[in-house]
Design goal:
This protein is of the alpha+beta class and 270 residues long. It has helices at 29-36, 74-88, 170-178, 216-228, and strands at 3-10, 13-19, 46-51, 58-63, 69-70, 92-97, 100-108, 111-115, 149-152, 156-161, 188-196, 199-206, 210-212, 235-240, 243-249, 255-260, 262-269. It folds into two domains: 3-116 and 259-269, Diaminopimelate Epimerase, Chain A, domain 1 (Roll), CATH 3.10.310; 140-251, Diaminopimelate Epimerase, Chain A, domain 1 (Roll).
Length: 270
């Protein structure tokens, strides 16, 4: 194997991206674990493969550092969209993902907006272990953090609305909640602080990746959760450890995310 890749990040949320539209590529979990390792590998939060698509410019698949496949990654989608738009000189692209067809557009030299689709609010979509009102789901492992507002943005999220995102011991609560029996497919865990109706502060424990500098789908989930709780307006800035994302839950039900991307370097997998 001698295959080119590009390393990119969205607010520090970093990805190894391989373009396999010409010859296909189906990496095995062991390969992904080796490449994603921060020690001895290239290091990344997600491994991403661009492929052919029937009804879009390209398809995208995402893998977590443990080798398991993920259904969605908002920041990686923005990075791939930027790469494809740079390549073709267009201002908008469509991308097929396991979570559905996504549209993305250029908003500046290194700024991309992506339509993440409609949040899925039914307990089966998350999924939860059994029937529950996803507005307030009791999670025993969360202690005194209160109930979680749960949803799917193509991947599962549990959002805890807290008084201070910094004060929560995310490294302690994150892995416990991620592995709770409440979430049979595990879950991304967000600790969201509503600073005012148009500004949120968010920290995310990402499923199979740990505490991350940014999570695009997590930022979308946090805004949806805050709006559902009556605490925020449907358009807000979400401040993550790596920077800010603009999130809008629009009248058509779709959630749009806008933010910057960065190219780190290019190389070859050999």
């Amino acid at each position: 194997m001698d295959r080119p890749f590009i390393k990119m990040n969205g607010l520090g949320n970093d990805f190894i991206i391989v373009d396999a539209r010409q010859d296909g590529f189906d990496p095995d979990p062991g390969m992904i674990r080796r490449l994603a390792a921060r020690s001895g590998g290239i290091g990344c939060d997600q491994f991403v493969v661009i492929g052919k698509a029937d009804e879009a410019e390209a398809s995208i698949r995402f893998w977590n550092p443990d080798g398991g496949e993920a259904g969605a990654c908002g920041n990686a989608t923005r990075c791939v969209a930027w790469r494809l738009m740079e390549e073709s000189g267009v201002g908008e692209v469509r991308l097929e993902t396991a979570g559905g067809l996504l549209r993305a557009g250029r908003r500046g030299p290194l700024r991309v907006a992506v339509d993440m689709g409609r949040p899925r609010l039914d307990w089966r979509a998350v999924p939860l272990a059994g029937p529950a009102d996803t507005l307030a789901v009791p999670v025993p492992e969360a202690g005194d953090l209160g109930a979680a507002t749960c949803l799917s943005m193509g991947n599962p999220h549990a959002v805890f609305l807290v008084a201070s995102a910094e004060a929560v011991d995310a490294g302690r609560f994150g892995p416990r909640i991620e592995a709770s029996p409440v979430f049979p497919e595990r879950v991304n865990v967000g600790f969201a602080e509503v600073r005012d109706r148009s500004h949120l502060r968010l920290r995310v424990w990402e499923r199979a990746a740990g505490l991350t500098r940014a999570c695009g789908s997590g930022a979308c989930a946090a805004l949806v959760a805050a709006v559902r709780r009556g605490l925020a307006d449907p358009q807000a800035v979400v401040a993550l450890d790596g920077g800010d994302l603009e999130i809008a839950w629009r009248v058509d039900g779709h959630v749009h995310m806008t933010g910057d991307v960065e190219v780190e370097f290019e190389g070859r997998l050999s």
